[in-house]
Design a protein that fits this description.
Elements: H1 4-16, H2 19-29, H3 46-58, E1 68-72, H4 78-87, E2 90-95, H5 98-110, E3 117-121, E4 134-140, H6 149-159, E5 160-169, E6 172-173, H7 184-190, H8 198-207, E7 210-217, H9 219-236, H10 246-264, E8 268-269, E9 271-277
Parallel strand pairs: 1-2, 1-4, 2-3, 4-5
Antiparallel strand pairs: 5-9, 6-8, 7-9
Amino acid sequence: MKSDYKKAVETAEHYYNSADADAFYAAIWGGEDIHVGLYESDGEDIGEASARTVRHMASKLELKPGTRVIDIGAGYGGAARYLARETGADVTCLNLSEKENARNRRLTAEQGLEDKVEVVHGLFEDIPFPDNSFDVVWSQEALLHSGDRIRVLQEVSRVLKPGGDFIFTDPMKAADIDDAPTYQPIYQRIHLPDMASIGFYQATLEGLGFETVEIEDLTYQLRNHYARVAEELKSRRHALKHQISPEYAERMLNGLKDWVEGADAGQLCWGVLHFRKR
């Protein structure tokens, strides 16, 4: 019988390797990021808002040439390229979708960053690097896809050097909301039995020897983001019909509606979580 995390891996890999998903994320996000954005105005460009999240997270770290960073669940690698270009850090992108990895490698080569950004196919439940390999572990909207988040956090602790930073974002459930049946529409969309909470991440990481640096609650931006993505998809679905199937577009709009309604109902949480390994 397959473990929960391996079943979750297969689900995520199948989804992100699909032609529909690749076309959707490339067209709607611009092919650089697949992450929640920080919005400053209504109708703002999704790609710019997503890039703002990367800049905001990076501002919390002391990055310099030679700093070793691993982005777990790196998607198209937009964050890695920003960190490499702007700080001189050496960044490893770990990601399970070969379709996304291929785009990442192409964009990295086009931007002349092949010497600073490495793209590795792999799982964050089994990070393929030795102990104490990295100064920073970075992740955006990836951990929710794992069927064994404790194992992921153990791996983060293993590969991170003492004194190193773990910074990430993740859609989470509100701590005081019971799982069933509140979250079932969302769980069905992501094909997982649950989501984590801030309390889960904080307690687990502190149990692994991390100290909490900052927990920045930006839940309102989760709502802003999914509403903005739905707006963009609705306005462009006809123009993109030869790239994104009508069935996929309809499922995506329904799923986005569930996320927006969940955020409005106070069921969801999102923010920037920053921890340091003692």
